[in-house]
Design goal:
Blueprint lengths: L18 E10 L3 E4 H4 L7 H8 L3 E4 L8 H15 L9 E5 L10 H9 L6 E4 L5 H14 L5 E9 L9 H4 L4 E11 L5 E9 L7 E2 L22 E2 L1 H23 L8 E4 L4 H11 L10 H4 L6 H11 L8 E8 L3 E8 L1
Parallel strand pairs: 4-5, 4-6, 11-12
Antiparallel strand pairs: 1-7, 2-3, 6-7, 8-13, 9-10, 12-13
Length: 345
């Protein structure tokens, strides 16, 4: 005996018709300036040598005697972003802090920042993706708002890499500085606003080219133990440079192709500030005019997860990133990780 059964197809609920806008931005820099001339008194280097290879003239370093820390920079940058968005902290549905250099493994800096700003019981967590910390967080926050589970999310990109430096290793110590940048994302009825395309990638097989070992067990077998020190950032500069030059251009091309947007239509490229030569290589590959590629590495160095949001804050404050523009965020770093986020602002 055969029984006919009609099974109803249950469709998932339709996604809400919602756009996402960057409602506010902010940043925070430490007070102490470390010039190339000062570094040359600590390690064998010179201003000319550093500028020629990296484009950096100075960088910032936290001063613990003044109460500066990863936490304080995160708090101050997020407070400024909330002020810019004309919002209270308790209006946030989520706070994400992209960092690899928080003071403690537990609690997260995000929880401490949320409490310091009066965000109530807002969920909060740190996201560890090194220099991609802000861009990963930006993509995640955008998509949470798009699916309708959140309406307002605060994100911070911050690192205090000076705490990981071996100042006898000139190949690494000349590059990095400390900074934080923040943004507030909000849902909007204007569905034209938000991400047009994004890429998030990682290749853990190459982790040993840029890493922060905390103990002797963390070193890979081929590590040069004559110079490598536990507790200090280690980098294979040659391999990271090759990775960055190729990945930078390829991921820009992939993102533009996904979005169907010609490179000429992008109003601004907000790029991770790893090395001025890497940024210039990508600019030349695509024939991008100089005024569309922001550079501040000369005065702040490579600030890891703080790099992209610091650039964004400076651009918005200067009126160079505005509503209606198409803006691409690009980052790459340890992990190895790389990411893009192409927005209609």
């Amino acid at each position: 005996m055969t029984t006919d059964r009609t099974t109803a197809t249950v469709l998932p609920p339709a996604l809400p018709r919602v756009g996402v806008r960057i409602a506010g931005v902010g940043s925070a820099l430490p007070s102490r300036v470390i010039t190339n001339q000062l570094l040359s008194t600590i390690v064998e280097t010179s201003d000319d040598w550093i500028v020629q290879r990296t484009g950096i003239s100075e960088r910032r370093m936290i001063d613990h005697s003044k109460g500066e820390s990863n936490f304080s920079l995160s708090r101050d940058a997020m407070r400024r972003a909330l002020d810019h968005a004309a919002m209270r902290a308790d209006e946030l549905d989520l706070l994400i802090v992209g960092t690899i250099s928080g003071e403690m493994r537990c609690p997260s800096n995000a929880c401490r920042v949320a409490a310091a700003l009066g965000a109530g019981e807002c969920p909060a967590f740190d996201l560890g993706a090194a220099c991609c910390g802000f861009t990963y967080s930006l993509n995640l926050a955008h998509d949470l708002i798009k699916v309708g589970t959140h309406r307002a999310i605060g994100i911070v990109g911050v690192d205090t890499i000076s705490s990981t430096m071996d100042y006898t290793n000139r190949a690494v110590c000349i590059l990095f500085g400390d900074a934080a940048g923040a943004a507030v994302l909000r849902a909007t009825d204007d569905t034209s606003k938000g991400i047009l395309a994004q890429v998030n990638r990682a290749d853990g097989s190459a982790w040993h080219n840029l890493y922060w070992p905390m103990s002797e067990a963390d070193f890979p077998p081929n590590a040069d133990r004559a110079t490598a020190r536990a507790g200090c950032l280690q980098m294979n500069g040659r391999e990271i440079y090759k990775f960055a030059v190729k990945t930078f251009g390829d991921v820009i091309d992939e993102t533009l192709t996904r979005a169907g947007v010609p490179v000429a239509d992008v109003d601004m490229f907000v790029c991770h500030q790893s090395n001025a030569r890497i940024i210039e290589s990508a600019r030349e590959r695509f024939g991008i005019p100089e005024h569309k590629v922001y550079v501040n590495i000369d005065r702040v160095g490579n600030t890891s997860a703080g790099s992209v949001p610091l650039c964004l804050d400076e651009l918005v404050r200067a009126g160079r990133v505005r509503e209606g523009q198409i803006v691409m965020f690009v980052a790459f770093g340890a992990g190895l990780t790389w990411a893009t986020s192409l927005w209609r602002m």
